[in-house]
Amino acid sequence: MKSSDVQRRKGRCGFTLIELLIVMVILSILAGVVVMSVGNVFQSAGESTYGTLRDQIQDVVIAYTAIHKIELPPTVGTVNISGDKSILDMCSILLPGGMLRNAPDGCISINGSSNDNCDSAMNCSGCIATSHYIWAIDKSGTVFSTCVGSECTANGVDGYQDVWP
Q: Against a cut of 0.85, is the pTM above it?
């Protein structure tokens, strides 16, 4: 019985501790590469979505000025983005009478707060977004944005700010 026990130990299959550690290191390096590449995809998707939304709001402002003979959409306050800009009142460009079916996901609506995109005296049922961006326009009708909240990395600066709803 002792002699067969010795033979079993010599012929035993398995991995040594060093081999297992090497495999684990290789797998962790591969996982790190995959996570980094996927993270960049999400960042570029947010930037692309932001750019599309900004273009959509800009197009609506241009259409509004064309329909109303150069009159800009109503505003609800000011925000400082590279100089004073007027906060766009999304209620004025929502249907009926407006061009948007509902407020885009990037708009902000702060309950009980002034100076957000959904403050208006009119019934504004379509503006219920609770995001980070406040959209503003200057006197020429160019659309700008600012980001509010602790999640934003560049408060008060126009453009995509690493935050998306």
A: no
